[in-house]
Amino acid sequence: LALPVGVACGLIGALFSYLLLTFTRKVAPLAVRYPLPMGLLLGVGMLLMALGNPRVLGEGSAVLHDIINNAGEVPLWSGLAVIAERVLGPILVLGSGIPGGLIDPALAFGGVTGAVVMPWFSGHTGLIGMICGMAGGLAGATQLPIFAALFTLKLTGALDCVPGLLVTSAMAAYISRWLQPKPIYHALTEIFLGKDDLPEEPELPKA
Question: Among residues 31, 42, 85, 103, which is most buried (max CB within 10 A)?
């Protein structure tokens, strides 16, 4: 029952990684060269997104609290809008070179994804989907399934969801790695160290 959530989170996690890497390669150098114009442009972009939904700003935990307060019920179109905003918003910030983390946005869009997807494929509520989706979103973004499952378990204390957390994390990481072969942390490190465009060193022939 957790497999559909894992697949969805893997697809969104891979998309998040791809867009973040692409945006970082294009925008981060411009932000260094033209900090004021780029800052204003990105600020306007965030403002326009916030006018549509204020939850695009602030911590991802606020989005998850909304799901809990609504007993796990997330309308389809509203959920899709929040997912899109929680993917694009952090990309505008992180891709410009502003220091930040991937964990908070990954937990947020993963939790909403799980809350939307789970009720469609099982009799479970969106709350169970949210918990599994948090692990799936984190695994899809980072391609670290064990870390994602344990981190989510630490946050939620949902021991009865351990099998779902493991299945969702493994599936999300597998889908993400299939679509985005290089993990996001490795790729970002290469970009900021200036090694992104360097060809890989050829392997020496074995004697």
Answer: 85
What is the maximum span of the chain, computed from C-alpha positions, in angstroms? 65
Residue 42 corresponds to which tokens in the numbers above? 């990105």
What is the C-alpha separation between 175 and 71, in angstroms, rounded? 29
Cα gap 185→105, rounded to integer Å: 15
Q: For residue range 17-48, list pLDDT tens digits in order.
A: 999 988 888 888 887 788 788 878 877 877 77
Sign of CA dihedral 169, 173, 176, 178: negative
Is the CB of residue 134 less than 8 Å from the CB of residue 111? yes
Q: Are 1 and 164 in contact (CB under 8 A)?
A: yes
Best CA proximity match to 114, nearest among 145, 150, 138: 138
> And the tokens for 81?
């809008």
Q: pLDDT (tens digit, 9 = 90+) per residue, 90-123?
A: 888 777 777 667 888 899 899 999 989 888 887 7
State phi, psi for 204 to the nearest 5 degrees: -75, 140
Q: Which fold has domain 1-25+55-187?
A: Clc chloride channel (1.10.3080)
**Whole-angstrom distance, CA of residue 28 vs CA of residue 96:** 4
